Amino acid sequence: MGCRSVWTRRRPGSSPSWAVDRFLGLVEGVDVLLPSRDEACLLTGLPDVADAAAKLSRHVPLVIVKQGAKGALVARSGTVGARVAAVTAAPRDSTGAGDAFTGAFLAALLAGAEAEEATAAGCRAGARAVERVGGRPPRAAGRGPGDG
Description:
The chain is an alpha+beta fold.
């Protein structure tokens, strides 16, 4: 199975139209895109996150826009079809929250979950991640290197 990845980085300011068009050309063939709220707006040049998610989903079959404490949007075929609520958390550090979301989302999706269910798993993992300082959760017994 092949996998084409496109990584995004948030930069302040708005994107010129040529940059938006170039990015949308680069995501051709991508199956799932998981930008943050700021990245989605930057990558489309649109100020509204729902509009940005909808636009991205005209180019990528499944778009999940992560919104931190506001949950996530699930968009397909030019429409935001679901808004998945965030999980209540006592945030201490946001380091690794997006990675935790993405890992849990992809694990659930690959295990057969529907996109909305996988997004909820991502929201749960992101909430757990922000409650700890640093980007690495503690190891569970028997799960680290050298643990047989």
